[in-house]
Specification:
With 158 residues, this protein is of the alpha/beta class. Helices cover 27% and strands 23% of the residues.
Length: 158
């Protein structure tokens, strides 16, 4: 009999949560934000990649037409999902990785106002000031390359 990989749990049309994969059954919380409808040709699913590293991963996919209020509410929904998830080992202390440059102005405002977000990694140039500890990764090649993920994990303190 083969073991099955648990699928992400769907919390809403835009939010899924993946338990840690591999040998870990509990892990720190991580939020990933990306545009809805993944671009063609992605080599790696970031939610699965970070779950394999032992994180409990909330993946928020932003559709077009977002506003500051909507992003703030969806980010709060993601942190609440992690707060109540049985596999999330560190409640109310989350890192966030953002792959959605077009939403940066709204996202930075929402991140700055969310007390549960402790650090942030932005893929692409950050156009506005983030008050939390953060870094910006200038993607070269594949947007989700493993070396970039390693840099993000190192920044987030793992």
């Amino acid at each position: 009999m083969t073991a099955t990989t648990p699928l992400p749990e769907r919390y809403s049309a835009s939010l899924t949560v993946q338990s840690p994969l591999g040998s870990r059954t509990h892990g720190p919380g991580l939020i990933i934000i990306s545009p809805a409808g993944a671009p063609a040709g992605l080599e790696i699913d970031p939610q699965q990649t970070f779950a394999q590293e032992g994180y409990t991963v909330a993946h928020l996919r932003l559709s077009s037409g977002y506003s500051s209020l909507r992003i703030r509410d969806e980010l709060r929904e993601a942190t609440e999902a992690l707060d109540f998830h049985d596999c999330c080992s560190e409640k109310s202390r989350y890192g966030i990785i953002v792959y959605c440059p077009s939403a940066y102005p709204y996202l930075v405002e929402a991140i700055n106002g969310n007390g549960e977000i402790k650090s942030a990694v932005f893929f692409g140039e950050l156009p506005s000031s983030c008050l939390k500890p953060h870094t910006s990764v200038q993607s070269q090649g594949s947007k989700f390359a493993s070396t970039e993920h390693t840099r993000a994990l190192n920044f987030l303190g793992t």
